[in-house]
Amino acid sequence: MARHSVDIKGFKALLKAKRVTQKRFSQGIGMSESALTKSLKGMRALKVEEGATIARSLGRPLAEIFSMFGQDVYETWPRSIPVLGFVGASEEVILYDEFSDLIGIDELMLPFTGYSGVVLRVKGDSMSPRYLDGDVIAYSERLAPEQCTGQEVVAKGVDGRLVLKWLQRSAGALMLVSHNPQVPPIVGVELEWVARIDFHIPRR
Questions:
Q1: How do residues 57-113 score in pLDDT, each as one tens digit?
Q2: What is the rounded average pLDDT of the residues 27-52?
Q3: Is 72 helix (H, G, I), strand (E, B) or coil?
Q4: What residues does CATH 1.10.260.40 cover in the chain?
Q5: Residue-by-residue DSSP string for 125-179
């Protein structure tokens, strides 16, 4: 439920700038139109994952989107959430064991509540300068690679490797690209699933 006044006009202006209807937009982000409408009217709380998807799709800050929906993403109290493992961002990719130990490697105090996705710590520097060793990223929904081509993703290979990369396609083959130009791309990789990044918290 909304704690503050909603900004329906502001949200519709963002949609208009993107030349998309509310119905078309909700379909594009995988959210039902009724859920989006209820959240925008303050009748339903917007989930952090939903807010992250909306912010990413509209190219706006997360806090701004939540403000339009009458919510404050930065609550006065933090939430402790386990960091469940590492995601590889180096030439030597960290192996991923599907979180056999849900206790996690450490804990993180988030500046907002309500997040139910997976939080991981970056290991390596192949995605620098955007993502540095020790940064934290999070994801929630696992998707088919075709749904995320051209985006930064957490990707799990069929061999069990989990990496943080930029997913591209070249000559019909999937390719995992690093931001660091000194790290060569991984070409022709077979992926089990990929996930868009919900949020990124730089190391302190």
A1: 888 877 788 889 988 765 534 467 777 777 776 544 443 444 444 445 677 877 776
A2: 87
A3: coil
A4: 8-68
A5: STTTTTS-TT-EEEE---B-GGGSTTSEEEEEETTSBEEEEEEEEETTEEEEE-S
Per CATH, domain 8-68 is 3.40.640.10: no
Integer Cα distance of 36 and 54 in angstroms: 10
User: Which pLDDT value is given to residue 73?
Assistant: 62
What pLDDT score was predicted for residue 125? 86
Domain covering 79-201, topology: Umud Fragment, subunit A (2.10.109)
Buried b (16+ CB within 10 A) or exposed e, 170-180: eeeebbbbbbb
CA distance 42 to 70: 7
Write out pLDDT tens, residues 135-152.
989 988 889 999 999 999
Q: List own/partner pairs for 38-42 with CB under 8 A and 24 or more apart.
A: 39/69, 40/6, 40/8, 40/11, 40/68, 40/69, 41/6, 41/8, 42/1, 42/2, 42/6, 42/69, 42/70
